[in-house]
Amino acid sequence: WRMPTSAEWEELFSCEWDLVTINEMIDAIRIIGKNKNEIYLPINHNGMSIARSYSESASWYWSSCLNVYNSHEAWAAAICDTGFEEVTINPKSSTPRTMYCFVRGVLDKH
């Protein structure tokens, strides 16, 4: 297992995305690939909780790429749920390495 690169995050952002609620409690982003495989990313509600309770949420997911211009930061994918069935996506946000972010593991196929 490993963390995805910034390029792999950017590739995901060309897929189909939609907001879903799991068990009427947890908000998540469903990503449907061109091959019709699906993955789900929970929305972390600003690092407080994944339980549904806020109208606007920002989820941050680490990439494996450090910011070469600032060694105290790394590249993360920022996903913002505006609460209006919209998702705003920034695949490359330079983020302090001390920030609470999710990790989405990627399994290399050998």
Search tags:
110 residues, mainly beta, 3-stranded antiparallel sheet, 6 strands, globular
Question: What do you see in this structure?
Answer:
- The protein has one helix spanning about 5-10, and strands spanning about 15-20, 25-30, 40, 55-65, 75-80, 85-95.
- The chain has about 110 residues and is mainly beta.
- The strands form two sheets. The protein has a three-stranded antiparallel beta sheet with strand order 1-2-3, with no helix packed on it. The protein has a three-stranded antiparallel beta sheet with strand order 4-5-6, with helices on one face.
- A hairpin with a 5-residue loop joins strand 5 and strand 6 (about 85-95).
- The longest helix is centred in the first third of the chain and has 7 residues, at about 5-10.
- The protein is globular.
In brief:
Helix content is 6%, strand content 44%. It contains one helix and six strands.
* Total of DSSP H or I helical runs spanning 4+ residues: 1
Structural Rg: 14 Å
| Major sheet characteristics | 3 strands, antiparallel
Shape: globular
Name the helicity range.
under 10%
Oligomer: single chain
Q: How do the helices and strands follow one another from N- to C-terminus? A: HEEEEEE
Strand order of the largest sheet: 1-2-3
Which regions have little confidence, pLDDT < 50, spanning 5+ residues?
48-55
Structural class: mainly beta
Distance between the termini: 12 Å
Strand fraction: 35-45%
- The tally of beta strands, per DSSP, is 6
